[in-house]
Amino acid sequence: MSDQQAENQPIEPASLGTSPLPPTAAAPRASAAAMTGAAPGREAPAGSKASGQRTVEQADVAQARRELEVIRRHHGSSGRSGSLRAAVFGINDGLVSNFSLVLGMAGANQSGQVVILAGVAGLVAGAFSMAAGEYVSMRVQREVFEGALSLERRELETEADEEQHEVEVILRAQGVPRTDAERIAPRVMANPEVALDLMARQELGLDPDELGSPIGAALSSFGSFAIGALIPLLPFVLLSAGWALGVAVGLSGIALFIVGAMAARLSGRPGLFGGLRMLLIGAAAAAVTYGIGKLFGVSLLG
Questions:
Q1: Are 156 and 188 in contact (CB under 8 A)?
Q2: Per-residue pLDDT band at 49 (split at 50, 70, 90)
Q3: Which of 38, 91, 131, 159 has a Cα at 20 to 30 A from 190?
Q4: Residue range 191-196: mean pLDDT, rounded
């Protein structure tokens, strides 16, 4: 080859001291593109990154709520605990009221049939009264709660800036520093359900988890009152008149002590104290009605 031809020959990259990149050098970029779902050579859109982050945050919130529910159950602050309280106090009401009624009729020297009739009437009337009162009370309470929550939900949608400021105030009132509250509040507002739950509890003083069912509350009150009212009545149904009064007093006393102990344990007090207190209250009420029955029975016989 002549010198002239060598000068006109194109210069190869290797002659400059560099070489083309090997195929594996482009692998990291292609792999990152595949992971984000973007086309090779392009970065994932900012919107998809934000959407993925929100999904992760929502999953974390859901997990935290499940863990919080476990903690609430451990400390007895769930809705089932409220239902248990209603059942215990319903049994107590039925027991005390019908125990007093039955002893009042027995004190008036009435026959066993009259005592049974009065006890059944007291059981049915009291159970229906408790159920109706519980239903109306729970229904009105639920409607008030739902109305307040609905109004708060609209305010979160239409007055976001004011509500975010209220979230900041709530956080600061809980001891969160101002700068942290200003940083956390937008994240709370980004999840409408979390924001509504926070505002309901802290601003309205409501617990969305404790709204309850009016029908369920009515049925629970009816059943628990009937169970309590049946205890002093059963001896007069199953036993002769000579034994019925003593057995009714003994069964009712034991039941009063047990119910009082359970109620005390629910409130964190010693069971013995609660049981004795309820036994004394029930015995006092029964003694008064028995004395009144005795007084009227003597006056009627005289």
A1: no
A2: low
A3: 38
A4: 83
Q: Is residue 285 part of a domain?
A: yes
For 177-187, b/e burial (b = at least 16 CB within 10 A) is: eeeebbeebee
Q: Alpha-carbon distance 25 to 223, whole Å? A: 76
Residue 127 and residue 228: Cα distance in Å, rounded? 10
How much of the chain, in percent, has pLDDT values that exceed 90? 17
Find, among 185, 133, 137, the residue nearest to 163 by Cα: 185
pLDDT digits (tens, 9 = 90+) for 112-139: 788 899 999 999 999 999 899 888 988 8
Residue 147 belongs to domain spanning: 80-301
For 276-293, write each residue's pLDDT tens digit: 999 999 889 888 988 888
State the amino acid at position 120 in one-letter form: V
Q: Containing H/E element for 22?
A: none
Q: Which two tokens stand for residue 170?
A: 């709530």
Measure the CA–CA gap between 163 and 154, rounded to whole angstroms. Answer: 11
Q: How would DSSP label each residue in 183-213?
A: HHHHHHHTSHHHHHHHHHHHTS---GGG---
* Bigger pLDDT: 84 vs 186: 186
Domain count, the chain: 1
d(CA 39, CA 22) in angstroms, rounded, equals 21
